[in-house]
Write a structure and sequence with these properties.
The chain is of the alpha+beta class. It has one domain: Nuclear Transport Factor 2, Chain: A (Roll), CATH 3.10.450.50. A 6-stranded mixed beta sheet has the order 2-1-6-5-4-3. Strand 3 and strand 4 form a beta hairpin.
Length: about 130
């Protein structure tokens, strides 16, 4: 049972990063819980609370990014009942324009809640890794 839940959370986390890489707000809409208690902290940003504010933050990022790809490392997944969390390092290659590429590393925590048989993100926090 635990192994199955970990596999489900692994897939949900992959769907999150696929939506992120594709800069696809419709996919992001499907993976997030649309609750007033969801939260998001992007590197260097203030806390976003509630689905409308969290969604707006993704729209802003997607509208100002040409492309983005992730190589996830140091992945840890834990499940406790209907809550699960993923901690990983996001090795990111991003382009703000066709000729401006940036590489960065972000330590991320993604918190999921199982709702009606599906794992939905309820919190994302990214902190830049220096050095």
């Amino acid at each position: 049972m635990l192994k199955e839940r970990i596999e489900e959370v692994t897939r949900a986390n992959q769907q999150f990063y696929e939506a992120f890489e594709r800069l696809d707000i419709a996919r992001m809409d499907r993976i997030w819980a649309h609750q007033e208690y969801v939260t998001c902290i992007h590197p260097g940003w203030t806390l976003q609370v509630g689905w409308p504010a969290v969604r707006d933050s993704w729209v802003l990022i997607f509208n100002n990014t040409f492309s983005m790809s992730f190589d996830l490392t140091e992945i840890q997944i834990q499940v406790a009942g209907d809550l699960a969390w993923v901690i990983c390092t996001e090795n990111i290659t991003a382009e703000q324009s066709a000729d401006e590429q940036q590489e960065s590393r972000v330590l991320a925590t993604n918190l999921f809640e199982r709702m009606e048989g599906q794992w939905k993100i309820i919190h994302h926090h990214g902190s830049p890794v220096m050095g």
